[in-house]
Structure formats: C-alpha cells, structure tokens
Amino acid sequence: MRWDGERRDRRRVLAGAAVLAAGASLGSVLRGRAQETPAAADDACLAVEVYPVPAGHAPHDVAPAADGGGVWYTAQRAGALGLLDPATGEVETVPLGEGSSPHGVVVGPDGAAWVTDSGLNAVVRVDAASRELTGWPLTRPNANLNTGAFGADGTFWFTGQGGVVGRLRPGAETVETIEAPRGTGPYGIDATPDGDIYYVSLAGSYLGRIVPDGDGFSAEVLDPPTPEQGARRVWADSAGRLWVSEWNAGQVGRYDPADGSWREWRLLGAAPQAYAVYVDERDDVWLSDFGANTLVRFDPETETFASVPLGASPANVRQILGRPGEVWGAASARDELLLVRTACDATG
Predict the structure, then answer these.
(1) Domain segments of the chain as ranges
(2) Span 3-346 CATH architecture
(3) Rounded distance, CA 44 to CA 42, Å?
(4) Could you tell me if 158 and 116 are in contact, meaning their C-beta atoms sit under 8 angstroms apart?
(5) What's the predicted TM-score (pTM) here?
(6) Among 114, 277, 300, 346, which residue has the fewest nearby CB atoms (within 10 Å)?
C-alpha cells in the first residue's frame, strides 16, 4: 500500500490544517496521526480532527468501542470491520467473509461490535476481545441490511432497505423479520431511553414505531409534516423525542411521542442535504450536510445551527455517533474518520 503518496494527497485537500498526517502502514494495520481543519467561522471552538484509514475502505458507519478508546467502523468496500486507535492512529482490519458489504455497526451490551451486512445478508457479531465472528443469515433474501440498534432487553433490531424490519432476540438462533409498511426504504433505527424502537424509511418518507404484538411485532407509520421528505436516519434524545434527518427536504425533524407533535427546521444554505443525525449527551443534535459538506450542530434550546466545514473535497459523512465529549463521523468519500471534540464549547 503506497500510503506516503496518499498522505500527500490529503495534505493538499486539507490545505491550512494545523496538524498533518504522518506514519506508514503495514498489512492490515495503518499508523498515522490526526489532522485538524481550521475551526468554523460561526463557532471558533469547534474543529475537525481527521484520522485516515486504509485506501479503499470507504467507511460507512462508525461506533466508539466499549473500551472507551477505540472506534469501530464498517469498511464497506473492503468487506471488513475496522478498529481505529485514535491515540496511535493504528487501524486493525477484521475481514467479515467473502461477499461481505457491511453497512451499519453498533456496540452491544456485551461490548461486541454488531454489524448489519448487506453483502452477506446477515447480522454479524465481532467479539471485542477475540475478534471471533458469529453470523445470523436472513432467510428473507435481498434485505439490503442497513442499520441496527439494541432494545432495553438486549434484543438487536435492524432495518433493510429492501423493505425489512427485523430482530434477533438474546439466545435466539435465527432472526425474525416482517415486511415494512410501504415496502422498500427502512434505513436508520434507534432506541429511546425507555427502550422503545423507532426507525425511518427513506423511500417511504416516514418514521416507524415498533409495536409488540403478542410474541411478534408490527410497525406503526408516523408521517412527518413535510411530504416525501426522505427520512434517512433517526436518533432519540434524553427525553425520548425522536430526531429525524430529512434528506430530500434538507431538514431536521423532531417527533415527541408524549403528545404526537412534530416540528421541523431547515438547515442553512441554498441546497442542504441532511444525511446522518446523532444526539449527544447534552441533547445537542448533530447532522451531516452533504450539500454544504459540513457537520452541523443544532441547539434545540436556541433553535440555532453551527456549521463545521469539512474541507475542499466532499466528505460524505453517512453516519455520526459519539461518546461524552466526542462526536465521530465516517467520511466515506475520503477514507477518513472525523472527530469533533465538544468539551471545549461547554465553557465557551
């Protein structure tokens, strides 16, 4: 792998960055240092640190590991799961099998990385200590698996854009699926603090609520006010309200289950495209805007946006997740993971 040449390319893309990458790669391990772009003009405290990953990984989803240090990501084009050590820049690669094309990754209650793999049409568990793989293939073909989330009882819930919502209960040997309302489109999914499961449908343009039904389950459709808004990802805040990134409309929406109310806010700029959404420990809402090539922080109390630019070339951040003081994104177009440290603006 010609990492030195790739590093020079990144240096040109991020002209003016305060810290530039350095290091070399060997086999499945990549070594490097973080890069930092200049802070956003409208919020001088916030800046982006950039962690290169191996060329061709096209990281899609990202999830901080249970150990509080590493960061998992799905290397979609490489058919693998990556693990970044931010302290050293090392990246460990865990191949997931022939035909793999992983989309989502979350960390389970057991500390393992749980992957939704559209290429394998299976849920895959990667043990955090041994890296041992365990897979649960779907009997329903062509699910186009997307994203997963854990409920309060340890059940793993997942979506498939092929028109599927499913679950894997603790100790079960097989997954269960239902056909989603309005067919194709189920994409993002999350659990509220009370353990309720909600998902969104990109093609169906709705928020869905999982409804227990005896030993089975069904899905209830909740329509945002804007028709055909393209609900892409969803995240719950500490009060159990659901925040939805509306891709087609360039908006962020909020649904409150307490009273069934909706509110929507359009992102800044002429042609915003809200892809990922994540709510941090302070209930600030983070989004990725493909239209402006930025990460966006929305403050629900003041109803204001702050934009963090991501450089000259498109980053295409497809998912955001974090831990206290850190917001991580996967820049699929640039083979990078991105980090915004939020602790700085807690004191101004």
Answers:
(1) 3-346
(2) 7 Propeller (2.130)
(3) 6
(4) yes
(5) 0.88
(6) 346
